[in-house]
Design the sequence.
C-alpha cells in the first residue's frame, strides 16, 4: 500500500487488547479492552490451500492494513480488531509496508 492508496482505508477498526483480572470469587476473568480506533483496509484472501482450509473451518482470513503510529506499533498477535461489528483475531505480529507508512497483519474472523 502506498500514499496513493490512502483512500482504501475505508473501514473503522477498534483494536482491543486482552486483559486478565480476578473477580470477587478469585476466578480469573479475561476480557478485551478497547485501545484505539483507526481507519483500516480489509483485504480478503482468496485461493491457496491454507485459505481454503480456513474456510472449511468457518474462518475468514484477511490482511488488515492501518497507518503506522505509536499506538499501532503496540499491536501483537494476542489482540483483536472489531470492524463493522465483526471480531477479527490478529494471527501474527504486524509488519511494515515497503514505504513504512502503514502496517499489515494477518487476521481471522469466524464466519
Sequence:
Amino acid at each position: 500500500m502506498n500514499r496513493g492508496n490512502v483512500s482504501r482505508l475505508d473501514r473503522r477498526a477498534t483494536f482491543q487488547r486482552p486483559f486478565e483480572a480476578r473477580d470477587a470469587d478469585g476466578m480469573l476473568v479475561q476480557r478485551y479492552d478497547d485501545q484505539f480506533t483507526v481507519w483500516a483496509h480489509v483485504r480478503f484472501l482468496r485461493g491457496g490451500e491454507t485459505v481454503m482450509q480456513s474456510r472449511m473451518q468457518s474462518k475468514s482470513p484477511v490482511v488488515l492494513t492501518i497507518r503506522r503510529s505509536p499506538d499501532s506499533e503496540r499491536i501483537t498477535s494476542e489482540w483483536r480488531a472489531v470492524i463493522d461489528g465483526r471480531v477479527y483475531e490478529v494471527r501474527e505480529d504486524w509488519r511494515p509496508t515497503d514505504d513504512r507508512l502503514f502496517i499489515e497483519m494477518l487476521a481471522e474472523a469466524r464466519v
User: Anything to note?
Assistant: The first helix runs from residue 49 to 56. The mean pLDDT is 87. The helical segments are 49-56. The radius of gyration is 15 Å.
